[in-house]
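Two records follow; treat each independently.
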Amino acid sequence: MNELRSDDGEIKRHRLEDLLKLMAVLRDPQYGCPWDVQQHWDSIVPHTLEEAHEVADAIERRAFDELPGELADLLFQVVYYARFGEEEGRFDFHDIVHVLTAKMLARHPHVFPEGTLESRREGVAAEDVATDRVHARWETRKAEERVERAARSALDDVPLALPALSRANKLARRASRVGFDWPDYRGALAKVREELDELEVEIDRGHHSRSRDELGDLLFAVTNLARHLDIDPEQALRGTNSRFERRFRGVEEAFAANGNALSSASLDDLEACWQRVKQRERHEAGSADRGGGGSPAE
């Protein structure tokens, strides 16, 4: 990476203004990049979603050395949209900063009591402020903002572009705010069992389209259960994906070490190897928790 240095040898760091200027040049019809000039609102959305997932992936892997680059890629998406807005005379990056700051000030009266950056809460440490009251005020303020935007439904403004699992979780949360919910996790758990039974019926009947619908209902019910258990379903599934990948690779390595191919193994052999890999993983995790040592029987 090229580094600019001042006369005294210090590295010159680029500023936000440099980034905004870079985007303006990239989008310049005469001097810019042909690819960037051709982009528009809709063409950038898939890249935005991809960059957001890459940020989440780096955090989950604790790859903090990669995180500045991934966050930079995500920020670049915001700069893109700001440039589109500026070119069309709708808004610019500074409008985005202003709206965000004003919104956060309004949503944090427990931090900025006068609604200004200069105002401060007096005499109460952050850890002494009740989290449940803060959350309630946050949700109340967001509801007020939806009313101010003439929202017609509790489900308005839930983005269609969210991953389906995350959107299901968000829809259920919105519905719960107006009382459309079970009192505790038991109702959600019973609904999971009910949807599973209904799915089995449609599978036995050979109704593919109805099976698809019932499977969707089952997934939605599971997200509701996750919400009652205060578990983020997207993160839970990502964790399962990671464990499955890690354990499957362990099975592949075990068969390769013996000169065998997975494709020629029986299901029983594959299952037995899977269980060995899983048990070894759990034992290693337990040993790490204990600081090493211990026997397999523990």
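The next record belongs to a different protein.
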Amino acid sequence: MSKVIISTLYDSDVFRMACRQFDQAADAINLPEAIRDRTKYPRRCLAVALPVERDDGSVTVFEGYRVQHNLSTGPSKGGIRFHQHVTLGEVAALSMWMSWKCSLVGLPYGGAKGGVIVDPHQLSERELEHLSRRYMQEMINFVGPHTDVPAPDVGTNEKIMGWMMDTYSNHAGHLETAVVTGKPIALGGSQGRREATGAGVAYLVKQYLADLKIPIKKATVAIQGFGNVGSETALALANYGAKIIAISDYTGAFHNPKGIDVQRALKYVQYQRVLKDFDGGEPITNEQLLELKCTVLVPAALERVITEKNAPKLRCRVLAEAANGPTTNAADKILNQRDEIEVIPDVLCNSGGVIVSYFEWLQNLQNFYWSRDEVMTKLYAVLDKAKTSVDYQKRKFKFSRRLAALTLGVQRVADAKAARGLFP
């Protein structure tokens, strides 16, 4: 067992959860003690104060973070989250998961993550732009096309990435499209990037249902979270023929056993911004949604929503983790004993976003752009290869699918660190 070192800087429930996952993977592959802590803990972090002039003339100082977990396998990569409950520990955990995810699917990146403690819904467009630009201004010495490449996450989008790219470019003195991904198409964004995470989740669900010999047109799906990832997952699965029976966001959940009209829900959110008062289904709670009887359950919101309390009550055949870290360690132990539930772990399930971010970065560096069909074909090929390697690891060592995915990701990062040696 690895000696226990708890970093007081990052200490939080979610960071301890990520560390326990790492420890389990490191023990499973007998990772040498000399390389464990180097592989486990973040390389560096930055905390910044972000003063923003509000529309009424007052000034609010927001707090922001960037954690770069691993720089041994390439520039670090990861989203920027704008959310009122962001903590440094959460950002550190997310950066760790990004390292394993990039490694698992074979991308030349390390993991990173960023966050600002703010409810973006409480800001005007002007205030949001000022906050986004201020965040990038504070990060300029720590990010770059070959250092750290941010992307959108919860509470951010392609417009915000465009503002951040422009801020960096003005500092550099020339257009630098490769500094962020998830940008608008007009600013060097990639075809397919907006829907990439959700499309990847839906593709893997389709593949695993086929393995289980369950026709996708007979599958029912409940999705917790109707942001970018959840809504694109719903749309892609509906296009495959699955029936979406429940959707939700932070304002409430809606259940319709006859099927929810996803296009109608998308239009509703486009104008109302949230699902509150949506009349396409019966109102239920987010907790009730997780326990609905369905073929596929997709947690696509925040981390730690599948707990030891509700894990025994899940009534799905496939749990597709579209969010990062949605299942606690205690819940995972319960699910491992429930052979009737197949888990597609987050580091595999939601990797479509970073895969197409990688494609966008490549296109920016080359100034050569691909069609949507090319992007999606390449995405599915990478996902198929990762799925095959995870399932082989699972069978070979009789691991859970999560442990199989984590051991592959951790081993590749550790191998890179060992090969590079320890700088004196």
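Discussion point: The first strand starts at residue 44 and ends at 53. How would you locate this feature using only the token line?
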